[in-house]
Amino acid sequence: MTSAIRADHLSKVYPTSSSGARALDELSIDIPPGRVYGLIGRNGAGKTTFVRIAATQLAPTSGRVEVLGHDVMTEERDVRLRIACVPQESRPLYFLNTEEVVYLYLKLRGLDPPEARRRTRDALDELSLTEYRRRSVARLSGGLRRRVLCAMVLASDAEVLFLDEPTTGLDPIARRQVWEAIRRTSREHRTILLTTHYLDEAESLSTRLALIERGRLMLEGTPEDLRGRVRYPYRVTVLGSYPRDELDSYGRVSPIEGGYLVFAREREARELARRALERGNRLSMGPVSLEDVFLEVVGRSIEEEAPKDDGEEEAVEA
Amino acid sequence: MTERRRFRSLFTLVQLNGLIPIRTQPLYLVNLIASPLSFLFFIWIVSKGALLAYGITGGMVLTMLSVGTGLQSDLTHYRQDLKFQDVVVASPVEAPVYVAGMALSELVYSLPGLSVFVILFVVDGFATPTSVVVLAGAMLLVWSFATALAFTLATYFQDVRETWMFSPIISLVLTVLPPVYYPISSLPSWARLVAHFSPTTYAAGLVQGAVGLAPISISGAVLDWGVLVGFTAVLFVIAAVKARWRDL
């Protein structure tokens, strides 16, 4: 089966970078078709650079990316026929009204006017934008403008959609409406590459996820896979007093208000839970969240990189 | 992409960047005719009407160049501030279709201004079959090279403010220094030499010759067309090679 997106040893150094730092560093990734694929990472981790290269907006320094089997550098026309993108900082043209933004985008892509009109109506309806259809974009809130952009690409006929932080600035209800539209779109066997800082969003929508840090792929797999591949896959919250040195023997300990958060392996987590209950502590226990995974992996990466960055061994110990 | 879809994309851009903004803000129309009509008024007053014909032909050339400077600002704004160009790049719309559609949409803004000049052109008795053909050809070439220049520059600007800096410089180099608004014979010899580096000198020479303002020989006309076509072709080659549709 052809991958929706496949990157092979992809690297990017921006010509404007004085330090020659790599925005992407030998990144290889294989995104299956017909699913929502989440790309997570810190600011500056390389998510947008990857999206822009795959969406044919940016040239890589080395390596190769294919979208639906077509090379993005040599067969870009074939790629562009089949993709749509909401860039991270894009804004709709302010002199258009909501309906025109979606309808004219679809016509711009070459859709017949009746088809464009039908898709526009459906997309505005799905994202609860119908009541704003005649309102100028200039008079919409930031969140509504973002929704209009999402409606625009979700209404398109593209097979691969790039959504770069599509729900930034949306309220919880609007976010869920966009999530529903994304899920509906993926049920049409279209592929969605989603970058987001909201880990609940990534976990809720994505069939598979990739965690990128400093341009490198740190983890890849289903949300379950990712949770299972950290050093400590369980979290135990212990409330009340408990000897700290004893807790340290179970795993990684973080003080929280009124107690401790302990990351541990399954056996140690069970043991700690039993002891804590015997001592009369209140506790909760469960698998780590995606946010815990993110913090552990990214935190480890920061620790490993610290001596290289500032050349001081003390930074690791601190 | 089929030809039918290309045309649909092209006319959608005209609608999107030309017709709809005019509907929402009609003052855009006044903006583009303000400079050429101001020049015309100034020339009419200072020359006591003697150079009015130069003002009319020059005004048409300046209007076509204004399309280019307007395009440069719009393309930069759409690329840098709205990320609209990124949206278009990641779609079936090809770069030449985007540029042509945007350039045509800018032409829509200039139509009222052009209409004023065309009326004056006809009323003053300059409209002959030859002059109309020469005028149309020269203006098409000015519009074409202004478009190619605008697209190339717009892909390098980091901010729309940079276009505000460049537009007056382009106007100076292409309409004030060259003899667009006056006969080339009125320039000192050194300035005449400099003027020959500007393509608008040849466009103005052709139009002024066709309406009988300045004598032009057949060989002179052939040379002027050759330079104008050559300059436009060079700018298109530069645009094809140097303009950035995909960022580096």
Strand content of chain A: 25-35%
Radius of gyration of chain B, in angstroms, nearest whole number: 18 Å
Query: Helix content range of the residues of chain B, please?
Result: over 70%
Strand content of chain B: under 5%
Tell me the span between the first and last alpha carbons of chain A. Answer: 49 Å
How many individual β-strands of chain A?
A: 14
List the total number of helices of chain A: 12
Q: What is the ordering of alpha helices and beta strands of chain B?
A: HHHHHHHHHH
Largest sheet of chain A: 6 strands, mixed
Give the beta-strand count of chain B.
0
| Total number of distinct structural domains of chain B | 1
Quaternary class? heterodimer
How would you explain this protein's 3D organization?
Chain A has 318 residues and is of the alpha/beta class. In chain A, 39% of the residues lie in helices and 26% in strands. Chain A folds into two domains: 223 residues, P-loop containing nucleotide triphosphate hydrolases (Rossmann fold, 3-Layer(aba) Sandwich); 90 residues, no CATH class. In chain A, strands 6-7-8-3-9-10 form a six-stranded mixed sheet, with helices on both faces. A four-stranded antiparallel sheet of chain A has the order 2-1-4-5. Chain A has a four-stranded antiparallel sheet with strand order 12-13-11-14. Chain A is globular, with a radius of gyration of 23 Å. The C terminus of chain A is likely disordered. By secondary structure, chain B is mostly helical. Chain B has one domain. Helices cover 78% and strands 0% of the residues of chain B. Chain B is globular. At the A-B interface, helix 2, strand 6 and helix 3 of A face helix 1 and helix 4 of B.
